């Protein structure tokens, strides 16, 4: 017969995988700390659906010489996005492809601070699955003030821009 003795209970009585399973909440390879979050900005320009469309970031084609801001996927609000005082923003990854020549521009307090690419030739695609070298702390190291961040896609081609 086995000896019976009290054992100190630790945990909640079931396995806790919260530290190992993070897909869907975090980007692979990044662990968010307390009070950090990921913001997804998107834009899809298409004539495959009737506009206005139910999803905020799905827009009509960008006309020649035109531009469009990116949209916050969670809120549906267009950029500029205001980084509150006390916070910084890192651009983690970027990707865009289109049928026309295009540029992607990043503005900080209305100043152009990052042009991740030169004009991409129609049918080209820009993608960076790495930390892109942009952080608002470079211009405001103490995060003392709030700052608007705007990301704009410009059509530099000869026809309406389709892409995303």
UniProtKB/TrEMBL annotation:
<protein>
    <submittedName>
        <fullName>Uncharacterized protein</fullName>
    </submittedName>
</protein>
């Amino acid at each position: 017969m086995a000896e019976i003795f009290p054992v100190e209970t630790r945990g909640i009585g079931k396995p806790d995988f919260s530290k190992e399973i993070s897909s869907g909440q975090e980007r692979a390879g990044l662990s968010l700390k307390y009070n950090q979050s990921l913001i997804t900005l998107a834009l899809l320009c298409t004539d495959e659906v009737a506009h206005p469309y139910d999803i905020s970031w799905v827009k009509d084609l960008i006309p020649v010489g035109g531009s469009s801001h990116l949209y916050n996927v969670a809120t549906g609000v267009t950029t500029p996005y205001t980084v509150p005082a006390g916070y910084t923003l890192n651009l983690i990854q970027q990707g865009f492809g289109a049928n026309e020549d295009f540029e992607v521009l990043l503005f900080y307090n209305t100043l152009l601070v990052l042009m991740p690419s030169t004009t991409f030739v129609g049918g080209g695609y820009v993608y960076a699955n790495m930390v892109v070298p942009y952080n608002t702390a470079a211009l405001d190291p103490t995060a003392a003030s709030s700052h608007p961040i705007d990301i704009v896609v410009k059509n530099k081609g000869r026809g309406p821009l389709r892409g995303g």
